[in-house]
Design brief:
Chain lengths: 219, 322
């Protein structure tokens, strides 16, 4: 599904922050991406989400060389990827329901075909009573759950999550991990970037450890 | 079949499935209208449309008046008989009038009498002046039958034979000057229109860039959820199209009202020196129905220009955002 070969990344003329990354993410796999702060976890997620282009090396996503993709192809590929960012990126003028339903709306689907699914998911992540609330009045944990719900609602083939349990209590963290595991069981490859050792200890999965720009893989 | 359809609901709540809340619906626009500097842009487009409509209306009035003058002047031909010692001016005038009547294509020949000539010169020389003291030429005005090709050379020859001191003026110099004047007016109008349209495009481009900058987080989120540039541009485009139409209708409508009232205003001022001067230049100051149609079409063109300029800027800005 994803293949990196000798990939390097630098910002501008600065030092190379990711070096010689070579790994593959198979379909239906589950992995944690971890490493100290500043190791380049977010940059690697951005490479995977096509927000950044590698300075060198080859990145293949869903069988396509990303260096050859045009903007329209990138948009099509992103529909197959879900992403949860640390800063949530919810739209403040839309209700929680509308934020979560946004991927379906962009796909041009009729609202009646997904409304029930969105509401079920919101209930499941504990936002059933907050569907009509606007993000500015949600707590950090609620925003995080809404962002996760938006990322998983269209059941992407690849889910990228940057510190998805950073703003929630351990109980809800476990519940969200269960959501990711269920999603993985239904066929989605999952990459969770996290510092949270407790979270990683709860599920036996492959670990990708970034250290000083290099990647170490623990199967 | 989509993945969702293949796998069923992502989360099965079984018997705990909730009743659907009434308000959970997609009601908000993806790009909120309030985030676009709408009022300012509507005002700019309205003002630009109003100015463009005034320019076009004035050009149409001047062109119509100039065309009327031209047709009036072109339908007339004038012969002038200069007095000369030893010749009878009255007899020469009558002979020239007869020669003109005999010419094919000329109808309704009217030689100005001595009294009428005095009347013509009265504004310049005052009343009570006897033309016997002055060598004032006598005019003979003939009306040319419309659609007739007048043989000017033959007419000149006939007139000179009738009176050696007579000459024929077909007003070509006047017509040329009038043509130049109306042409210059139309050119100036087109120039002003071009400037107005360029200013509109620049204003709209700035407004679009501002709106895109203000809504950059929305653009980024739309990219995250897989929206293509065309989809994102359409979210903004709908707003700009409406703003352009709103501005165009307001500006064009006000200009039409202004021209509608201008006839009444011109009537109020008729008889005054200013009113007479305007009447001489612009005729009755009333726009024909085709003129109103032209103004409406122009308002639509400006609205379409607004939409086109915003769309062009949207795609350029989206290219920069990546």
């Amino acid at each position: 599904m994803v293949r990196f070969e000798n990939v390097g990344l630098r910002y501008g003329l600065g030092p190379e922050i990711l070096r010689d990354l070579s790994f593959a993410v198979p379909a239906h796999s589950f992995q944690f991406l971890t490493g100290p702060s500043g190791a380049g976890k977010t940059s690697l997620l951005k490479l995977l989400f096509l927000s950044l282009r590698p300075t060198r090396g080859l990145v293949t996503l869903f069988g396509q060389d990303v260096s050859l993709l045009g903007k329209d192809n990138i948009a099509d590929l992103r529909k197959r990827i879900g992403i949860v960012l640390q800063d949530f990126r919810l739209l403040d003028h839309m209700t929680t329901y509308e934020n979560v339903a946004l991927p379906f709306r962009v796909m041009g689907r009729d609202e009646s075909s997904y409304r029930k699914e969105v509401i079920d998911l919101l209930k499941w992540v504990g936002l059933g009573e907050r569907m009509d609330a606007l993000p500015p009045i949600l707590s950090g944990g609620e925003k995080q759950r809404a962002a996760i719900a938006r990322a998983v609602i269209s059941r992407p083939q690849l889910l990228l999550a940057d510190e998805p349990t950073g703003s929630v209590d351990p109980t809800l963290g476990r519940r969200l991990l269960r959501l990711f595991i269920e999603l993985n069981k239904s066929g989605t490859a999952v990459i969770i970037a996290t510092h949270d050792i407790t979270l990683m200890d709860q599920y036996d999965a492959r670990r990708l450890v970034l250290h000083q720009g290099r990647l170490h893989i623990y199967e | 079949m989509s993945r969702a359809e293949q796998h069923g609901p992502l989360v099965d709540l079984g018997n705990e499935r909730p009743q659907l809340p009434a308000r959970a619906r997609n009601l908000s626009p993806i790009v909120p209208r309030a985030s676009i500097a709408g009022r300012a842009l509507v005002a700019v487009v309205a003002i630009m449309t109003f100015l463009a409509s005034l320019t076009t209306g004035a050009v149409l009035l001047v062109s119509a008046s100039a065309a009327e003058w031209q047709s009036n002047v072109a339908s007339e031909i004038t012969a002038q008989v200069r007095p000369q010692a030893g010749r009878d001016l009255e007899r020469d005038t009558a002979a020239v009038a007869d020669a003109m009547r005999a010419q094919a294509g000329i109808v309704d020949v009217h030689p100005f009498t001595k009294k009428e000539s005095e009347k013509l010169l009265e504004p310049w020389l005052g009343s009570g002046l006897s033309l016997d003291d002055l060598p004032v030429p006598r005019l003979i005005v003939g009306r040319v039958q419309p659609g007739t090709a007048l043989d000017l050379a033959a007419l000149r020859k006939a007139v000179t034979q009738a009176a050696p001191t007579a000459s024929v003026d077909d007003h070509r110099a006047w017509i040329e000057r009038m043509r130049s004047m109306s042409g210059a007016t139309v050119l100036a109008g087109v120039g002003i229109l071009a400037l107005v349209i360029v200013a509109t495009i620049i204003s709209v481009s700035f407004a679009t860039r501002g709106a895109m900058a203000a809504n950059r987080p929305i653009v980024e989120v739309l990219h995250f959820v897989g929206a293509g540039d065309r989809y994102i541009a359409n979210c903004f485009f709908q707003h700009f199209l409406l703003l352009g139409l709103e501005g165009g209708v307001i500006g064009g409508g006000l200009a039409m009202l202004a021209f509608g009232f201008s006839e009444s205003i011109a009537t109020w001022f008729s008889g005054t020196p200013v009113g007479d001067q305007f009447a001489a230049l612009l005729g009755t100051f009333s726009l024909r129905p085709s003129g109103y149609l032209a103004l409406a079409a122009q308002a639509l063109v400006i609205a379409a220009t607004t939409a086109w300029a915003s769309r062009r800027t949207l795609f350029a800005t989206l290219d920069e955002i990546e």
